Structure to design on (335 residues):
């Protein structure tokens, strides 16, 4: 297939692009390579992707509507995966406009381009953050998610609603994927594995929020990519049993679906740090701090729908995944 992937300089986007190219797909990759974090890491990821035949790099900004229209008209992608977004819960408290520009304006530009260019399936990254104040575990796509606790989460919920509207009005198949705490080689330097490793090697204390009373459903990058590929290949279908009397939040009469992609095995933050310390062979100094605004205490993915529809469930343990991350980290930073 010819697949347009946004965010190909990003953590998930670069891994996904390589996976698609390796199976013989043609990939058009869009990324503006902004400086939210280390640009050299983004460039290094792109170099890995550009080593493959069949990749076309487009270094543009999704907020530019005319640019997006021109890209779709020129390349005519059959399917689209949107992984480009302004990430980060805490940063959304500091710079909310960046989230509206990228996650809302850029998103509607993609939806419009898909609408007018006969795209077969639009798959997009949502987030476990949309569950917000929910405390009914594990998180199910059939639960209501109307109480986000960060602007980042609110923009991701907005994406799900906007996509549903296009599925309903224009019969555009769309699938939203709620990722749960993704980690692994080539990961983001603002995420805890990278932040903690940097601090530990520098002999500086790591910040342990909520005094360590956190659980996260850490999901290894290869498992995330496998879930994306399988859902991309499984074009969203209407749910014939959906009813407005008892509306199911995870399906629709329109060709629209939501899936969790998580490990279905939450890990306490203290154990997670112990695993990292073991892999590094170094002990962390810890600064115990209260819960940060916008954070949630636990995340826990119900992956039954993913298994039922595409036959897949992530399986990589935190011990296996962290060892691979540390191996990459040592190699990349030559430490």
């Amino acid at each position: 297939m010819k697949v347009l992937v946004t965010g190909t300089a990003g953590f998930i986007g670069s891994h996904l692009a390589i996976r698609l190219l390796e199976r013989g797909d043609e990939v058009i990759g869009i990324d503006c390579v902004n400086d939210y974090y280390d640009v050299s890491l983004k460039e290094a990821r792109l170099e890995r992707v550009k080593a493959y035949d069949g990749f076309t790099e487009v270094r543009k900004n999704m907020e530019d509507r005319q640019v997006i229209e021109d890209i779709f008209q020129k390349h005519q992608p059959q399917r689209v995966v949107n992984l480009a977004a302004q990430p980060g819960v805490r940063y959304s408290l500091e710079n909310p406009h960046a989230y509206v520009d990228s996650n809302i304006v850029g998103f509607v530009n993609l939806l419009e381009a898909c609408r007018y260019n006969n795209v077969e399936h639009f798959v997009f990254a949502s987030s476990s953050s949309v569950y917000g104040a929910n405390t009914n575990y594990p998180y199910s796509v059939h639960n209501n998610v109307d109480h986000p606790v960060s602007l980042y989460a609110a923009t991701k919920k907005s994406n799900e609603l906007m996509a549903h509207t296009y599925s309903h009005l224009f019969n555009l198949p769309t699938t939203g994927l709620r990722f749960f705490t993704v980690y692994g080689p080539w990961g983001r330097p603002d995420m805890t594995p990278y932040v903690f490793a940097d601090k530990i090697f520098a002999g500086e204390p790591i910040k342990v929020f909520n005094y360590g009373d956190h659980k996260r459903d850490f999901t290894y990058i290869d498992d995330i990519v496998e879930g994306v590929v399988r859902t991309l290949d499984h074009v969203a279908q209407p749910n014939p049993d959906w009813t407005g009397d008892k509306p199911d939040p995870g399906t629709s009469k329109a060709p629209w679906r939501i899936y969790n992609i998580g490990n279905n095995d939450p890990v306490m933050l203290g154990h997670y740090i112990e695993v990292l310390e073991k892999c590094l062979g170094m002990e962390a100094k810890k600064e115990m701090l209260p819960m940060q605004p916008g954070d949630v205490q636990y995340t826990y993915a119900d992956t039954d729908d993913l298994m039922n529809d595409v036959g897949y469930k992530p399986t990589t343990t935190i011990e296996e995944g962290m060892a691979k991350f540390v191996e990459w980290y040592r190699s990349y930073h030559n430490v």
Summary: DSSP finds eleven helices and 13 strands in the chain. The radius of gyration is 19 Å. The chain has a mean pLDDT of 95. The longest strand covers residues 121-127.
